[in-house]
Design goal:
The structure holds two protein chains of two kinds. Chain A is an alpha/beta fold. Chain A is 42% helix and 11% strand. Chain B is mainly α. Chain B is elongated and about 95 Å long. The chains are: A alpha/beta, B mainly alpha.
Chain lengths: 259, 435
């Protein structure tokens, strides 16, 4: 797999078209790594000159900030900005809506001003530029429901890019009762991913999974590694993992092409 | 002696408006207890938001039934105020229906008022049924026990009585009924008073007239003591609301200064603070009480009308957690009122050993938030409960080191190895070579 780092690129005196910000989940989480690889396959197929920071990448600070640790967040941010500015990065793409939101909205006032795109937005632009073609193939006719990640949807108003990509797969896109602006959280945001939930009568991801199951989907699509984990756990909890797959939009496209 | 009613009217009017003005001043003072935040930018966008969301009720109709009913009551409130203007002029000058010289236009106006009045009566009755017979969940959450629930009903009764008085006033106005113009609704009420002596009907008309205007003045003064301030504050609140993407949380400037100092290789860690700076108390991070919040957050609290749309959309609340964004706003307002009364009684704030944190809002509520912005999206008047939750988490973490243990682990990991999990930063690219 061709994954150049910024350091390698710089040594060759080249500047990539876009920096792929992998994120912690995409780097370390076994499930999310598959999303990372699916996206890299698509980048390579479209001949996108990209690079990653590799070992120079560090947490954006999102979970620390949402947990209330502004110090740690800003330490992370300032360190990352130093690295990014050192490489004169202009454009960033990431498959994690949390990294996306933080890099796009919270880094500029700390000195890090970049054009930041979510991978679904970036893939859509590749499609529009004719650099990438999507064929239905494998998923033709399947029922797919799309779960809006809070930090992509409500937080940044990106609802259509992932849906447009899904529609290109010749699938039947079915919306959940709660979608887009009214979409229900998967339960992972605000640093909840890293702790046990407070006492209640249900877990948020179970509630959301039930809403997804109401649409009788073959596939639950997501655009966030954390949502992916939560929905996967939810589907397992309902013992539906044999019939229903939880997949990232990038994986859907890459798999449809059997990349 | 004929001018005695006019004098009484003037006194009642001045007392009603004067008392209201006094409370508005108190309200403004309390809101100013908040920290400064600059919202003077982008005025055209702010005016647009106010026109769209407050004046245009755009977010109300996201829920069509309540939204349309609300628009009726809102229009009734706005338009019937023209009638109130006439009542005030009549009351002060001793005239009767001074606007009637407008002729045909007046007929249309009054006819419109009467139709609106009956529509408002219907809408308010539907609201009452939703609250008390259908018992919509969001009106029966734990924070709605006692006063908040009575407050909601009392406002509905007020509106019912005011509308009935308005219609009765028109129905018993003999000259007005004789004109047979504009009395589109009251003509059906007038026959109820047939058979009564003309003098009695006149007394009913005068009583309804007086009770209507006094009722309006009482209602005006009730606003400050109820959740109903939104009819005024929705306008500034939508104007001053954040224009940033919902996911963008503010970067604390005090922290930025410290971080910059830490990263500056030329900074002398042992340097004495510059002259005159050592007197200033160190900046407090986050919020444990209402005075740590900014004035927009406090304005938010007074604007909240406890409709509960936020809470009904909250994933934590839906799954039985204690967190309710509406309660966050109600608690903030109640504590701010308490602080305000304390200042009224003592001149300046006298320490009462209470705070918004723990005495009103528990840590369990704060840690249940997923920061999903559903509450912010749901609010029809652009209130942001999430920003208060975040500021209180900041206090807990940065001032008290009181984060849940698992979150402390997560943060330690980020500090040590740049990821929320304990993986080595040097392994970040390993995925490239894995199967």
């Amino acid at each position: 797999m061709k994954v150049p780092t910024m350091a390698e690129m710089m040594a060759e005196g080249r500047q990539p078209e876009v920096l792929f910000w992998v994120g912690c989940a995409g780097s370390f989480d076994d499930r999310a790594k598959k999303i990372t690889k699916a996206f890299v396959k698509l980048l390579n197929k479209a001949n996108v000159e990209f690079a990653v920071l590799g070992t120079e990448e560090s947490c954006t600070g999102d979970p620390a900030k949402r947990a209330g640790n502004e110090f740690l967040f800003q330490m992370q941010a300032v360190t990352n900005i130093e690295v990014l500015n050192g490489y004169e990065v202009k454009k960033i793409v990431t498959a994690c809506p949390h990294c996306f939101n933080t890099l796009k909205n919270e880094y500029p006032s700390l000195g890090g001003d970049y054009k930041v795109m979510h991978h679904t937005q970036f893939l859509k632009s590749l499609l529009e530029e004719g650099r990438l073609a999507i064929e239905g193939g494998k998923f033709k006719g399947k029922r797919v429901t799309y779960h809006d990640p809070c930090y992509l949807g409500r937080a940044n108003g990106v609802y259509e890019a992932p849906r447009e990509l899904i529609r290109k797969l010749d699938v039947e896109l079915v919306e959940m009762r709660k979608c887009k602006k009214a979409g229900l959280c998967c339960g992972a945001g605000g640093a909840q991913m890293f702790k046990e939930p407070e006492k209640g009568n249900k877990d948020v991801n179970i509630e959301r999974t039930e809403q997804a199951l109401e649409t009788r989907p073959d596939i639950v699509a997501a655009g966030c590694p954390f949502c992916n984990t939560m929905m996967t756990d939810g589907v397992k909890n309902k013992e539906k993992e044999a019939e229903i797959a939880v997949m990232d939009v990038a994986e859907l496209i890459a798999n449809a092409e059997e990349l | 002696m004929a001018i005695i009613p006019n004098i009484i009217f003037a006194v009642v009017l001045i007392a009603g408006i004067g008392f209201f003005a006094r409370n508005v001043r108190k309200l403004a003072r309390n809101i100013r207890l908040g920290k400064s935040t600059d919202r003077s930018d982008n005025r055209s966008q702010r005016f647009k938001n106010m026109a769209r969301i407050a004046l245009g009720q755009q977010k109300m109709v996201v829920r069509p039934v309540a939204g349309i009913m609300h628009i009726i009551v809102y229009l009734g409130f706005l338009i019937i105020n023209i009638e109130v203007l006439e009542i005030i002029i009549d009351g002060l000058l001793g005239t009767h229906r001074i606007f009637s010289f407008l002729g045909g236009f007046y007929t249309v106006l009054i006819g419109g008022f009467e139709i609106l009045a009956i529509l408002v009566l219907v809408a308010v009755t539907v609201f009452w049924i939703r609250r008390n017979i259908i018992r919509l969940q969001r009106f029966w959450n734990p924070e709605m026990k006692g006063w908040p629930r009575n407050d909601g009903n009392l406002i509905l009764y007020f509106e019912m009585v005011l509308m009935v008085l308005f219609l009765v006033m028109n129905a018993t106005d003999a000259p007005f009924q004789q004109m047979q113009a504009g009395n589109v609704i009251s003509r059906f009420i007038a026959p109820w008073f047939d058979g009564l002596p003309a003098s009695t009907v006149h007394v009913v008309e005068r009583s309804a007239w007086w009770l209507h205007i006094v009722g309006i003045l009482v209602f005006l003064n009730y606003l400050y003591y109820s959740k109903h301030l939104h009819i005024l504050l929705a306008f500034p609140n939508t104007y001053f609301a954040s224009l940033n993407p919902k996911g963008q949380f503010n970067n604390l400037e005090a922290v930025t200064n410290e971080v910059k100092l830490m990263m500056d290789p030329n900074a002398d860690p042992f340097a004495a603070p510059p002259e005159g700076e050592d007197d200033a108390p160190p900046e407090k991070f986050g919020a444990s009480d209402v005075t740590d919040l900014n004035w927009v957050q406090l304005l938010n609290a007074y604007t909240c009308t406890e409709c509960g749309r936020c809470t009904s959309e909250c994933p934590a609340n839906q799954t039985g957690k204690k967190l309710s964004p509406r309660k966050i706003m109600m608690d903030t307002r109640d504590r701010l009122e308490e602080v305000g009364k304390n200042i009224d009684n003592n001149g300046t704030f006298a320490e009462d050993n209470k705070s918004l944190l723990d005495n009103y809002i528990t840590r369990e509520e704060l840690w249940a938030c997923t920061s999903c912005n559903a509450c912010v999206e749901a609010c029809p008047v652009s209130i942001d409960p999430l920003s208060i939750i975040l500021d209180m988490r900041r206090y807990l973490v940065m001032e008290q080191s009181a984060a849940p243990a698992e979150l402390n682990n997560m943060m330690t990991n980020i500090e040590n190895n740049g990821a929320p999990w304990p993986y080595n930063q040097m392994d970040r690219l390993n995925w490239k070579n894995e199967g």
